[in-house]
Amino acid sequence: MLSTLGGQMTGVAVAVQIYALTESSLAVGMIGLAVGVPQVTMPMGFDQPDNATRLQRLGVARWVLPSEFDGDQVASALGSLLDDSQTATNCRRWSERIRSRNAIEETCDLLEQLA
After folding, report:
1. What is the mean pLDDT of each run of 10 residues along the chain (115 residues)?
2. What is the pTM of this model?
């Protein structure tokens, strides 16, 4: 099942998990990383190819070029994520690492050090 989840993301409901399909907006990519969701990205330009590459290097995403973004390519990218047993481990690890930190408190502490 495909459904639009806002202007920048489409979710694909799979029996076991929801995977993010996005044109690799940094915010969407980071939300996916924080909640531990594997991602198929479609970088369109500007910083998006860099963001998509970084997510792929973390072992939580695959990316498809806009000119090749069709059902077969998305299915192939999603299949490679599902077939790679390390993907779920990577998603859990990064999600736990992000959620274990209090980013607001740490940011405030850094700002107070500057004052």
Report:
1. 45 47 66 87 84 93 89 90 93 93 91 92
2. 0.72
